[in-house]
Amino acid sequence: MRHRTPAGLRGSGRAARARASLPRAPLVLPALDVGAALRARVGARPRAVVLVDRHGTLTGDELLDLVRLHRSGTATADRAGLAALPAEASLRQVLAAVLAGPEMLELRSSGSTGAPRPQRRGPLSPAQLLSLVDLARRIGLRPGRVTACAAPGVHGHGLVATLGALALGAPLVDLTHLPAAERVALLHRTSPALLTGVPVHLADLLRADRELGGGRPLAIDRVVAGSDALSPVLRADLARHFRARVHDVYGTTETGSLCVDGRPLHGVHLRELDGLLCARTPFTGGRELVTDRGEITADGRVRVLGRADGSVSSGGMLHDPAATVRVLRSAPGVASARLQVVPDARFGVRTLAEVVLAPAAADAVPPSAEELRTLVRDRLGAAAVPREVRILPPGAASAAPSGPDGEGPAPSGEGPSAPWGPGGPMDVPLSSPGR
User: Which residue, among 94, 416, 72, 399, has the nearest Cα to 233 in the 3D structure?
Assistant: First the structure.
């Protein structure tokens, strides 16, 4: 059994150094809930711009008006708060829901440390605040710095960025759910000092700026990626194009943020046990949770090598391949199904489902690929829907795994850049056990 905890990752020495280097937090209200603390912060500067989006600017006073409007809705909607928002909710909607909502924030866990389940976040403790302040310091999120967010605010990454910017008095730019041309225009108009998003969002924005930016140079001091594997190629491209310092943030909904560029945050205790990363943080309630497969190098740097639970991350969205196969197999007219995970230039990996139809009566209508995708979406959610579904005739054998262009064998996927870990595409047979 291998058990490694490098010097400096645990104990008072590292914590003392982290505390000594922390700036004073503009807002430290551990006795108040998140919504109350943010309302107080916004109310202290009512005329300051807190958000810029496709609709224009939003000041503190205007945000508090939205909060009052949100609270004037039905009691049921008010209790639902953040959980009631659609996936495409704007950051205006997210801020209004959080500031108007109950004391407890309810998020759906990513499934990194077990089956996805509701996660409740109540009043922040001093230890949690210190960890979040350290995160802001490391990525360069400071008062007054314009911060552009490309990650949806209803998910953990976008929510932390949105609330962090509001708490620190950093004007926020909402790049989410915009057409490419609008996104590029808003980016250049606001000239943010910090840009954050999931790697797939950042790659899309980089591509759009190259095509639609008109050759206008745009320097962004910090680019922050999280929620999925950041490839060395994308990291270098972002740094070169935006002349930016690029940060890679690792964490989970259950544990909170863990590392920036492989270095643990203040209050985070990580150890390696038989190839698994075990974390105890201010957000785990004293428990130690297994997060992912990984290693801790001799100099204390944390390297994530893949998922520990067999889940697949595509574009930062997680799902269980075995559960997807079971749903496909349950559809009327389906004899067998399997799911492959193959490399994808945009999402890192994509899922390809091969479904063999069962012999049917002459008047029977076999399920279509879109009907099967809809079935998976209804049962498991949008993240579990295969990017592609291939329908094969009765008695056909599934084809060999294909590469990202659909022709020829897929790459082996070995090495740390493969989000699903070493060993190549994941072939999930019908008999795969559930997690």
Answer: 416
Domain 312-428 listed as CATH 3.30.1300.10: no
* Average pLDDT along the chain: 77
Phi-psi region of 318 (alpha: psi -120 to 50; beta: other; left: phi over 0): beta
Taking only the tens place, the pLDDT of each residue in 6-49 is: 443 443 333 323 233 343 333 333 334 677 778 888 988 899 99
Angle at 108 between CA 173 and CA 86, to 5 degrees: 50
Name the pTM for this structure.
0.68
Q: List pLDDT tens digits, range 88-100.
A: 899 999 999 888 8
**What's the CATH code, domain 3-307?**
3.40.50.12780
CA distance 37 to 128: 14
- Between CA 227 and CA 313 the distance in angstroms is 9
By the 10 Å C-beta count (0-12 exposed, 13-18 middle, 19+ buried), 67 is classed as buried
Domain ranges across the chain = 3-307, 312-428
Structure tokens belonging to residue 58: 């939003």
Q: What are the angstrom distances between the C-alpha of 176 and each of 13, 155, 179, 397, 410?
A: 41, 12, 9, 42, 32
What are φ and ψ of residue 306, in 5° steps? 160, 175
